[in-house]
């Protein structure tokens, strides 16, 4: 026997009340979820004076073995709250002086994706920002040594072009040909006036060294390889490939000369890609690239390239800890000067 409409009515009212309460709960949760977004939307964007981009950190940002970011973090952001950015590999940190920084990730795709996400995030105002792209790298023993710190005059893409096997070429000839029409994507001449400022402010920075690195340098006959570390300038070569050996090092120098750049002093992975991202949004007149050498890009004359890549215990270059310290020592001189003299720098690189 079916119930009468009068008997059904309390059940229907109760069900409607439960649905109403559920809808209110869902709406309340949605509003609460939007609160941080709405709060951020009403906040004024952070005016960035200097942005420091590192590529990796080994562990934590402080208190353990330092990678590329830790010394920067300990100097500028120990009390800063992390700012999560969708699309970036790690949070951004900013201090009250307008110095911001982040780990961007290793490799061209990884780092440039993070940089693009950060640049487009409305939490930040990059309209007057200066950039320091910071990290470790390799160096050819003919022109550099372990713990050197090199400001880039040019940043070049090592990969964008045509390559073929050496045995398919005239013996000893280059096996690289640039792809026409991609000039703006693969070579970046950094602002000479800004690079001059960087050298003026940091050339006399005392650099750390180690006995391990000192012993390792003596394995090489080159005068540049055997000397103490220094601050200098030169071309940075960006490639996703960790190229090693005298043949590929020679080819990197060939590419540098082919593009009209200075001698290549640094082999790294990210600079050209990050420079391109910054160029498309704000231009590269305020970009600096700073790298410290933690390895030679080839073995000494008494070892093969594979022996150089897979050394025996105790035969590594050493000097990593000292080099990451040197990078921050050198770079912070420029960061601090720009911030302390912001009125002179905010509208562009001042004349010397």
From TrEMBL:
The UniProt record lists the keyword Zinc-finger: no
Protein's name according to its UniProt entry: Purine nucleoside permease
One GO BP annotation of this record: nucleoside metabolic process
Pfam families for this protein: NUP
Keyword Electron transport: no
Superkingdom, taxonomy of origin: Bacteria
Gene Ontology molecular function terms on file: catalytic activity
Leader sequence segment: 1-41
InterPro entries: Nucleoside_phosphorylase_sf, Pur_nuclsid_perm
Coiled coil regions in record: none
Keywords noted in UniProt: Signal
């Amino acid at each position: 026997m079916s119930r009468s409409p009068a008997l059904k009515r309390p059940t229907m009212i109760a069900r409607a009340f439960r649905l109403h309460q559920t809808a209110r709960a869902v709406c309340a949760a949605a509003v609460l979820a939007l609160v941080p977004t709405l709060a951020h939307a009403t906040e004024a964007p952070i005016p960035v004076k200097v942005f420091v981009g590192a590529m990796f950190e080994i562990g934590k940002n402080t208190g353990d073995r330092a990678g590329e970011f830790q010394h920067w973090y300990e100097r500028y952001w120990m009390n800063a709250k992390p700012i999560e950015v969708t699309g970036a590999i790690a949070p951004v940190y900013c201090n009250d002086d307008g110095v911001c920084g982040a780990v961007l990730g290793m490799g061209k795709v990884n780092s440039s994706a993070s940089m693009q996400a950060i640049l487009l995030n409305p939490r930040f105002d990059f309209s007057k920002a200066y950039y320091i792209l910071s990290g470790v790298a390799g160096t050819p023993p003919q022109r550099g040594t372990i713990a050197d710190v090199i400001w880039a005059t040019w940043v070049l893409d090592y990969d964008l072009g045509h390559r073929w096997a050496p045995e398919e070429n005239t013996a000893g000839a280059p096996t690289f040909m640039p792809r026409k029409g991609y000039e703006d994507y693969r070579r970046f001449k950094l602002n000479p006036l800004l690079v001059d400022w960087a050298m003026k402010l940091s050339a006399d920075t005392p650099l750390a060294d180690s006995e391990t690195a000192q012993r390792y340098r003596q394995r090489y006959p080159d005068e540049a390889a055997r000397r103490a570390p220094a601050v200098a300038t030169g071309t940075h070569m960006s490639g996703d490939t960790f190229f090693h050996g005298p043949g590929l090092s020679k080819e990197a120098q060939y590419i540098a000369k082919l593009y009209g750049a200075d001698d290549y002093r640094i082999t790294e992975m990210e600079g050209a890609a990050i420079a391109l991202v910054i160029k498309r949004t704000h231009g590269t007149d305020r970009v600096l690239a700073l790298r410290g050498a933690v390895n030679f890009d080839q073995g000494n004359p008494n070892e093969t390239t594979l022996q150089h890549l897979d050394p025996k215990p105790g035969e590594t270059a050493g000097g990593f800890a000292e080099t990451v310290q040197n990078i921050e020592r050198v770079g912070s001189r420029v960061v601090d000067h720009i911030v302390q003299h912001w009125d002179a720098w905010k509208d562009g690189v001042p004349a010397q």
